[in-house]
Amino acid sequence: MPGSSPLIERVLDEVERATDEIVAFTADMVRIPTVNPPGEHYEDCARFIGDTLARLGFDVEYFAAEGRPEHTARHPRLNVVGTRTGLAARPTVHLNGHFDVVPAGEGWTLDPFGGVVRNGRIYGRGSCDMKAGIAAAAFAAEAIRRAGVPVPGTIEVSGTVDEESGGFAGVAWLAEHGRISSTRTDYCIIPEPLNVDRVCVGHRGVYWFEVAARGHIAHGSMPFLGVNAIDGMGHLLQAIREELLPALAARRTEVPVVPEGARQATININGIFGGQPVDGIQTPCVADVCRAVFDRRFLLEEGFEQTKREVEAVLDRVRARVPRVDYALRDLMVVHPTRTPDDSPVIAAIEAGVGRVLGRKATRVASPGTYDHKHVARIAGVPHCVAYGPGELEQAHQPDEYCRVDDLVASTKVLALAILRLTGATS
Ligand SMILES: [Zn+2]
Q1: Distances (CA, A) of 270 to 127, 189, 211
Q2: Is the separation of the CB atoms in 98 and 162 below 8 Å?
Q3: CA dihedral in degrees (298, 301, 306, 307; nearest 10)?
């Protein structure tokens, strides 16, 4: 029976034995406050991860995101990649984690950057999302080494920046510069906190757009002489609510997006501004400009072209109804949906690992938001990519964020087994 060989038992034992080291590595990373924005202490964290990987037998390289505007002297964008080649150069399994964290925010009962370990949990901003994942990746590889298992392939572990703000100086940069690429990378696993028994096979698409409604300024006492742009925006919002929303709600993707509400297409109004600032001194004016930004999450089945055409169609109908207002559409950001092929070996490897380690069947999910998977799939052209790692999705970005130590150990084991299987060390 696969999964019960002495070799596998040895690797799992080595993970178990390394528990304190895995926890300490995670907590030490949490103590480096890599807050994004603006991108603090990235260099410290990259070097710390690099030093640790070097101790674990990796060849370590650093990649500053030269050419990116956000890579500055004050806030350098430094990525780190560790490589360990075994009996053969290929296949290569690349494990990637982002080490930037979102700001701590309010509501903490302990130091968000204290790296507190208590009651079987590691607390702190970034503990769950996703410094625990980086530790799991590094020690999955290390347990294989300590168990003395020869790996017929290459293991890479990277720590990258800026995932929380789009990953352009991080994974996208590594992909654009060929460091993660279909010509050298066979499999990619991103240990994001998706829960210890779930494998994430992609995400929905994102279309951020702005609509600027322009009317005509006039004296506020004679509004009939002007055209109010805020009222014009009101017509658009009404059309979105009455015409677009029911259509979106009726669409359901075959991709297993969680939570359930995100199985359908959605739209959110990110922000709206028109007329005079409400806290400022008021003058009697008809508002001549109103702008709003929308966040449309689209399904793999919809595609971007259809998504944008539908928005344009709503605008055209509103224009016909409200001819005196000018509506201008501007694209702000497009992220295409990704989905790992159902029969991808990387899904099978994680599922087998979850089955062996946790004794239950893994659930396939897709993310309601996006993560660095998009760059691996779209820029690097590596289709065999999943997210799998320790930590509960609901903990991400919360006050008193934590990662359970037993989840961390279990997912380290799953990652180790996945590496063995993907490199052909085990069947
Ligand atoms: Zn994350």
Answers
A1: 28, 31, 12
A2: yes
A3: -10
Distance 99 CA to ligand 1 centre (A): 8
User: pLDDT at residue 394 above 90?
Assistant: no
Query: Is the pLDDT score of 70 beyond 50?
Result: yes
Question: Coil, strand or helix: which one is 218?
Answer: coil
What pLDDT, in 10s, does the model give residues 337-357?
A: 999 999 999 999 999 999 999
Give the model's confidence band at 4: pLDDT under 50 very low, under 70 low, under 90 confident, else very high: low
**Residue 100 near residue 29, CB atoms below 8 Å:** no
Tokens representing residue 375 in the block: 């760059």
**Could you give the CA distance from residue 336 to residue 379 in angstroms, rounded to a whole number?**
11
Identity of the amino acid at 173: W
**Residue 359 alpha carbon to ligand 1 centre in Å:** 26
Nearest Cα neighbor of 290 from 207, 211, 208 is 211
Question: Which one, of 383, 380, 384, lies nearest residue 177 by Cα?
Answer: 380
Q: Where are the beta strands (DSSP E) in 55-153?
A: 59-64, 78-85, 92-98, 117-118, 121-123
Q: What is the whole-number distance in angstroms between the Cα of residue 160 and the centre of ligand 1?
A: 11
Residues acting as catalytic residues: 100, 163
pLDDT of res. 393: 86
Q: For residue range 106-130, list pLDDT tens digits in order.
A: 999 999 999 999 999 999 999 999 9
pLDDT score at 248:
97
Residues with Cβ within 8 Å of residue 37, at least 6 apart in sequence: 103, 165
CA of 119 to the centre of ligand 1 (A): 24
Q: Which residues pair with 271 in a beta bridge?
A: 293
Classified as helix, coil or strand, 226 is coil
Judged by DSSP in three states, 265 sits in coil
Place 53 in a pLDDT band, splitting at 50, 70 and 90.
Answer: very high
d(CA 172, CA 45): 19
Q: How far is the CA of 167 from the centre of ligand 1 (A)?
A: 10
- pLDDT tier for residue 282 given thresholds of 50, 70 and 90: very high
Does 366 score more than 50 pLDDT?
yes
